[in-house]
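S2.1 Query sequence (Ava_C0101 and related proteins)
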Amino acid sequence: MTQIRMLPYDDWRPTKETLHRFAQVVGKLRLAESPRRNHWWNVPFHVTGSGITTRPMGRGPIFAVDFDFIDHRLVVATDEGRRASFSLIGLSVADFHREFSRALNEVGADATAVAHATPFDLPDTERPFAEDTEHATYDPAAVSAYWRTLSAVNLILEEFSGRFSGKTSPVHHFWHTFDIAATRFSDVVVPHDASSDSVTREAYSREVVSFGFWFGDESYPAPAFYSYTSPEPAGIAERALPTGAEWLDRGASHLAVYPLEAAIATGDVRRAVLAFFQSAYLAGAELAGWDIARYACDDGVTDPLLSR
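Output structure tokens follow.
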């Protein structure tokens, strides 16, 4: 596994803020052009061998959008063999929006969904991407480090997902929050009323324990692994976590957080993170009354002969 190295938040913040908006432009198109799946599983990006992808989508032509973080290009390709691409280096968000729209039109895909798109849950949420000339930093070295970290964390999450045989989301990269995550579900329905927004009602229509990694933001300016249980059972913040991890009080709930720096300090990031995820899972699932033994799975094996 690639050794995960620190990517201090302040060191690449301007690039992260620009790249995050690039991802949201493409993400808005994915939201519009993909068949809906439960819990919004259709919306996030997936990690590839050179970057991240939307996966195929559209109703004619079928197409996919890939961020290539080796050559630092955005590629739009159709099932008919048409391709359009452009360099990510040196672009403002407005430039990216213009070039992306041009590339979609060039291959015959519909760019209508992003024509007037704006950021989701970011400070400039009212400003259309097409007008954002403020965010214009793209450091290829920082982006390469981000992608290599994303790739390594993806494998840890894949391994941890294989230890649960119940309903589990894909490992996916959320463009709205810029994190990578996987979620375990029980079959307990969670009631919601009209006071909850539609995004929340779909995402949390069942009991979940979620696990992931994010690169830091203004509220927590450091890369870290995390986990939360929703709905949160009483007493979860009293459960023990590995050394270096803590429960953060978010007002209505708690977030288990394990800084990347603390995981690196153990000398074995993979082992340390898997232990953190497991402790956070047991904290939430046991208190919520999940059948832990029923869904336990040894390294992705449910074959009754092999699992013996």
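The two ends are 28 Å apart (CA to CA). The mean pLDDT is 95.
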